[in-house]
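Notes, Module 5: Reading structure tokens.

Key idea: the token line is not a picture. It is a compressed description, and you learn to read it the same way you learned to read a sequence, by spotting repeated patterns. We will look at two proteins. The first is printed below with its tokens.
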Amino acid sequence: MKVSDLRVALFSGNYNYVRDGANQALNRLVDYLLRQGAQVRVYSPTTDTPAFEPAGELVSLPSVPIPGRGEYQFSTGLGERIKTNLAEFDPHIVHLSSPDVSGHRALTWAREREKPVLASVHTRFETYPRYYGFGFIEPIFVALLRRFYQRCDAIVAPSPSMIAELREQGMHRDIGTWSRGVDRSIFTPAQRDLAWRRDLGIGDDEMAVGFLGRLVLEKGIDIFAETMVELRNRGVAHQVLVIGEGPAKAFFAEKVPEAKFVGFQKGSDLGRAVASMDVLLNPSVTETFGNVTLEAMACGVPVVAADATGASSLVDDGETGYLVPPREIAAYADRLTAYSEDPALRRSHGEAGARRADAFDWDTINAAVARTYLRLIEQRGDAAAASG
């Protein structure tokens, strides 16, 4: 079988109604597969106000809003309509990108029909409860995820550090790499715009510490805010540039009143905003890869990040930025202070990051997923022939 012969059923908890790194990676994968001649049908909850036009054919799953987080939908299963649609499509492989209710039901559907299943890991769901006062249930989340992933034929994760974490948790034996790419037509040092900064009240010689991402607690905005307080207490001159929107914006604004909030940005406007930072502070530990880290590096911006799965495979400590123990406020402040005192060091680390980002080409990365599909289909066929 060739890639052009494939029929892929992709299940997503959120394919295009919120713009985030996971959704954009899935859409880029589907776009790549379609350009190779494959057929792809995407099953996901939908809304009347999607964040962007989806790649491929999108089939709406039954869903309800998540309480307290109305921007997200929670799938409630498949139902006969979706099962009939799946049977008509008759996919060669099922790709699950979220361990939600529909993901579990689709996995059962595939198992009953002896179709191979690939799961992709996009975020560290097991860490979310700790940000909402329920950290004690994290082991239960890990056990549930383990049960889900072990029923799949294989899983893919975006970084060596995340693969190591998954192996340590006993999630699966067959774990491959599906990395992430970056659009160098958008994210480039050439997008830096001093006039845009000046309009925000950021001087040419002032260090702008940036935050990039959804404004939600699980992105570590509490750590970011505490670090800014520490910088103020030390008398370290800096500005704060926040790119993104989200339900925790009011919390962020209260904790970091000096911040310049530029809201949600996309396309060249996003590239300009990122390139106009002087350093990205990314304290999140919930990412499996860290798309924002790679985007900043591509713009020539050094990164100070939590030494966790989202950044540890991207940031070369002391060369393209710094890795810091996740919740050590003083350590984050130390690294930012060093950058404030030595602009040449910032430039050197930023230039090294831009060179490192050159290796992340989307088509090369997505071709690896297609090869994994073909391998699992072949293995399933071999197993069926052997048992027959």
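Here is the second protein, with the sequence above and the tokens below, as before.
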Amino acid sequence: MAYVANTLDNLVHQTAFFNLTVGNYIMIVVALVFLYLAIRHEFEPLLLVPIAFGMLLVNIYPDIMAEYGEGGAGGGLLYYFYKLDEWAILPSLIFMGVGAMTDFGPLIANPKSFLLGAAAQFGIFAAYFGAIAMGFNDKAAAAISIIGGADGPTSIFLAGKLGQTALLGPIAVAAYSYMSLVPIIQPPIMKLLTTEKERKIKMGQLRPVSKLEKILFPIVVTIVVSLILPTTAPLVGMLMLGNLFRESGVVRQLTDTASNALMYIVVIVLGTSVGATTSAEAFLNVDTLKIVALGLIAFCFGTAAGVLFGKLMCVLTKGKVNPLIGSAGVSAVPMAARVSQKVGAEADPTNFLLMHAMGPNVAGVIGTAVAAGTFMAVFGVF
């Protein structure tokens, strides 16, 4: 009987109930809320479902993120996934998939979109100085500030390159959370800064873009940007490689793989590993609250800067530019462009801004990568 009692006692104490802290239970509830938002309200479910599930797993079974050799054993499953984030492999592959999925034609047809994409990066630099004011060191502030571009892969890439792996979890979760909340956060800011008359502005049809232009664009951008900021090559290079697959027309299999199978495999691995960095010990602290607040401020500033620059372009072009497309200068592709379309359509159902907004949206992806490369160059990181 004593043997049976000891066996049952050991089994009971091996359950998670005896090992979890209050913080773990809080994070489990947060994970369930994220799953609810992703499944019930479809807030960027491709990102939020794996992130939330990774968060759930690590707070029930922390050893799933155990480092190799920790306790004399091999690493946990999601630890190996996470190393691919830390080494900047997965963020770069995500960029290749985005390039293969995205039509750069609107940006090529309207190069002024680059200015709107650049304006929306103001939030990044506002967050950088805000993070320093809150007590973060230079590199940590730079890693946090990229959240303002609403670009999860770039946030992960820069945090890894700058050695801020301790903050990678909160930074990545904040970045992806704000990406998924674009349809909620942006519209009030857009409506506050524009008049109904401005929101009703109809933009002229974009000029046709030739196949040659679409092929040359990724090649030229890669050469120019990489020569000026070589540190951007992993992100910008992969983005443009994916787009070259798409536009060349001779590697359809590679295009399909990069934009579908490979993209979704990477999203699963990256999402679950990012979620798994949010153990209660790592996530429930004052620095995390600061990061979440700074990310929201940065994102709001970036959206506002894009809209305000759009208003300036509207004045300079005598009403030919709808300021709403400036909000798409953040990097959440194509969600931010869809929000520009939605807000414009609310003012006038016959107003179609989606393709015009895709120009700043693509420019924002490039702009955020350039901002990350600039920080790396400043800190001498390669």
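Summary for the second protein:
- The chain has a mean pLDDT of 89.
- The radius of gyration is 22 Å.
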